[in-house]
Design goal:
Layout (H helix, E strand, L loop, with lengths): L1 E5 L13 H18 L2 E7 L28 E4 L11 H7 L4 E7 L1 H14 L3 E5 L3 E2 L8 H12 L6 E3 L1 H9 L18 E2 L3 E4 L6 H9 L2 H4 L10 H14 L6 E7 L4 E12 L4 E8 L8 H17 L3 E6 L4 H9 L3 E12 L2 E11 L2
Parallel strand pairs: 1-2, 1-4, 2-3, 4-5, 4-6, 5-7, 12-13
Antiparallel strand pairs: 8-9, 9-10, 10-11, 11-12, 13-15, 14-15
Length: 364
């Protein structure tokens, strides 16, 4: 369970809102109770873009003082109505923590609150809407009171959300018990790693063209780990956006492999499967055709294995390979992995079945 405080920013959180003083009092009560009971409070801010007066660096963009975040509380920024849009990273963050229930409060009822509630419902979250904890202003078609009542009493209940009194919501918060086992690894994310010839760092959008040319657009490279070859920079840019958004969770560990000499993005390496409760991660990697045979995959893998054990805190690092991928098997051997077994006829590729060979290392 989390308390999601939507767009309560200085530029719009004032007495122009319907029932402002009641809204202020009730949201404060929910924030205080959540903090006391271990329910995470997450803030959303809306960014209208540079020059709008409602963007990063503008006073009106910041969270209203009455609801100000405490140190360490998460803030996700957006430039669309729904806080659950893929660009914010909120969905991945909640999924990484096994959160199923979202209490939604904030502004404005008929814009970002409505969009967030409906989007959250569609993504499988149970949306809770406490009474008089969202509000809006008059619009050309309805006054603010009518708008509030239309959504809170007609649109959301029984369709997209469970609408409760503040007292009922407080009871949920006070009875809250964490449903997931505490994570046994660090949410340290993708930190930069330097090796003799490589820089491993988080992806950024400027990598798209280099990635397309060196590996993401090459069928022979992509097919070896079951990914499509991309045809345009725009396609790769969308792929990288998914990677970049995922970094917000703290449990995403995916690096661009940069050759120091050329500053080219020559591949990628990641813990693409992570079990934060049972403390293991599974590696995948690829290196562009022109850069193979130079030991780069082994160099990157050894660095990421070390990071996995000593920074993330894995107990086990595992890797799998198709029997026909001889080059990858050599990397696995050089890294000292121990063979565990093969899942027979796991893949059907190019008209025939192939197994999936598993290898692992343990922390001790």
């Amino acid at each position: 369970m989390v308390l999601l405080v939507i767009d309560t920013q200085k530029g719009i959180t004032d007495d122009r809102l319907y029932g402002f003083r009641t809204l202020e009092e009730k949201i404060k009560t929910l924030i205080e109770a959540s903090r006391e009971c271990g329910v995470e409070v997450i803030y959303i801010r809306h960014d209208d873009g540079p020059g709008s007066g409602f963007s990063k660096g503008d006073a009106d963009f910041e969270i209203y003082d009455g609801f100000a975040p405490e140190k360490g509380e998460k803030i996700f920024d957006k430039n669309v109505n729904s806080a659950f849009h893929d660009s914010t990273g909120l969905t991945k963050y909640l999924e990484s923590k096994n959160i199923k229930v979202v209490i939604a409060v904030g502004l404005q009822t008929d814009y970002c609150v409505d969009a967030t509630i409906k989007s959250g419902f569609e993504k499988g979250f149970k949306m809770i809407v406490p009474e008089y904890c969202n509000s809006t202003r008059d619009n050309p078609y309805m006054d603010a009171k009518t708008t509030y009542e239309f959504y809170n009493k007609n649109m959301w209940p029984g369709r997209y959300a469970t609408c409760l009194s503040v007292e009922e919501t407080l009871k949920l918060i006070r009875e809250y018990k964490k449903s997931e086992i505490p994570a046994r690894i660090a949410a340290c994310g993708t930190q930069e790693i330097e090796t003799e010839r490589l820089i491993l760092r988080p992806f950024c959008q400027k990598d798209a063209e280099s990635a397309l040319h060196n590996w993401a657009g090459i069928e022979a490279v992509q097919s070896m780990y079951g990914e499509p070859a991309y045809k345009t920079v725009e396609e790769v840019s969308r792929l990288l956006e998914n990677y970049i958004t995922g970094y917000a969770t703290g449990y995403t560990y995916r690096w661009a492999v940069m050759e120091k000499e050329s500053d080219e993005c020559i591949g990628q390496i990641a813990y693409f499967l992570v079990d934060k409760n049972n403390s293991w991660g599974e590696i995948e990697y690829c290196i562009g055709t022109a850069y193979q045979g130079k030991g780069y995959a082994t160099e990157a893998a050894k660095a990421v294995i070390d990071y996995g054990f000593h920074t993330i805190g894995f107990n086990k690092v595992q890797i799998c390979v198709r029997p026909s991928n001889i080059k990858s098997k050599r990397v696995i051997e050089k890294c000292g992995f121990e063979y565990e077994g093969t899942l027979r006829d796991y893949f059907f590729i190019n008209g025939k079945y192939e197994g999936r060979m598993y290898y692992s290392l343990l922390a001790h």
